[in-house]
Amino acid sequence: MTDSTATPVRARNAARVSGTVRIVGAGLLGSSIGHALRNLGVDVALEDASPSQLRLAVDYGAGRQATGDDDPTLIVVAVPPDVTADVIERELRRYPNAVVTDVASVKLEPLNALRKRGVDLTHYIGSHPLAGRERGGAISARADIFVGRPWVVCRDEETPPADLAIVEALALDVGATPIEMTPADHDRSVALVSHVPQLVASLLAGQFVNAADESLRLAGQGVRDTTRIAASAPELWVQILDANAAPVVEVLDALASDLTTVADALRAPETPGARRSVADTIRRGNDGVGRLPGKHGQTGHFEQVVVMVDDTAGQLGRLFGELGELDVNVEDLRLEHSPGAQFGLAEISVVPSAVRRAVDGLEERGWKIASTTND
């Protein structure tokens, strides 16, 4: 894990962003941006409505406390959605020469609110890093949470090119990939890939509340994967979902229709076409998962090799080392531990052409192969 408080390892002039970066909101995203920029030697000035949160972020090394003498080049607003527009307006008026961006997960509502107020938005560019953790606050911040993640930038025809370059430089400095979208396209997209998945995970996990302990003891990695984000903060998600209600409802209505179709088929499985309806649902899910970009944005198909790994120190490192000796590149990895078992299952994703080489080579070296995709 990256030590976000470590001494910066890159020279100051390696950063694309210059001058002081003012971050308003020292929670998870704000502090994480601070850590990433501090690692490049950037001067980061922090402000937060909570004095204790601000002191904690400063103590952990996300930046220094902002002062009235600061003259920021860039301002990053990282506050809850229900006050995002208010803070953007305040920062634009207070620092008219600075570029202001925000990292709220909804882009259209704050923009419309600012336009209705007649705020000069020349130097405002909405943005959103698609990154985060289930836990929030400055104590959970990490410098590396943006690495390889998309960072949406919502420009318009009035955006000065120099301002756009500053926001894109911020994204690049923290390791993210800038992607330009309109606010409306962004909100529809995150409704599908972020907001509705949060609701689905929460609804499924909610079924566990009154479930028998015997049932929950059977839970494997699949159900843990599908409900991981259900641990998110309700207070924040109420604001996010309220701000993006229309696109979320559109996806929920389509999902509800599909659920009804499957439920009707399972109520009468002997009805002609019922089994096909279920099969089509599973197959459509296969097709959808296949479209999700993986490493380096690839959408290519990978095969899985599941290896049994003893629960002792160094075994996972040895597995990776021997895969390297076999010239097998690990495209992805998932670990599963069964309660009470003295071993784990390492699901290794590799390109199809490497499956046989990986299986044969690992078995020759004494590894037990639990399964492969084609089993």
Describe this structure in a few short sentences:
By secondary structure, this protein is an alpha/beta fold.
3D architecture notes:
The protein has 375 residues and is of the alpha/beta class. It folds into three domains: 15-182, Rossmann fold (3-Layer(aba) Sandwich); 189-290, 6-phosphogluconate dehydrogenase C-terminal like domain (6-phosphogluconate dehydrogenase C-terminal fold), CATH 1.10.3660; 299-372, 2-Layer Sandwich (Alpha-Beta Plaits). It contains 13 helices and twelve strands. It has an eight-stranded mixed sheet with strand order 3-2-1-4-5-6-7-8, with helices on both faces. The protein has a four-stranded antiparallel sheet with strand order 10-11-9-12, covered by helices on one side.
Features:
single chain, 375 residues, alpha/beta, Rossmann fold, 6-phosphogluconate dehydrogenase C-terminal fold, Alpha-Beta Plaits, 8-stranded mixed beta sheet, 4-stranded antiparallel beta sheet, 43% helix, disordered N terminus, Prephenate dehydrogenase, oxidoreductase, EC 1.3.1.12, 6-PGluconate_DH-like_C_sf
Mind telling me the CATH superfamily name of the largest domain? NAD(P)-binding Rossmann-like Domain
As for the CATH topology of the largest domain, it is: Rossmann fold
Order of helices and strands: EHEHEEHEHEEHEHHHHHHEHEEHE
| CA-CA gap between termini | 35 Å
Major sheet strand order: 3-2-1-4-5-6-7-8
GO molecular function: prephenate dehydrogenase (NAD+) activity
Organism: Microbacterium marmarense
Protein name: Prephenate dehydrogenase
EC number: 1.3.1.12
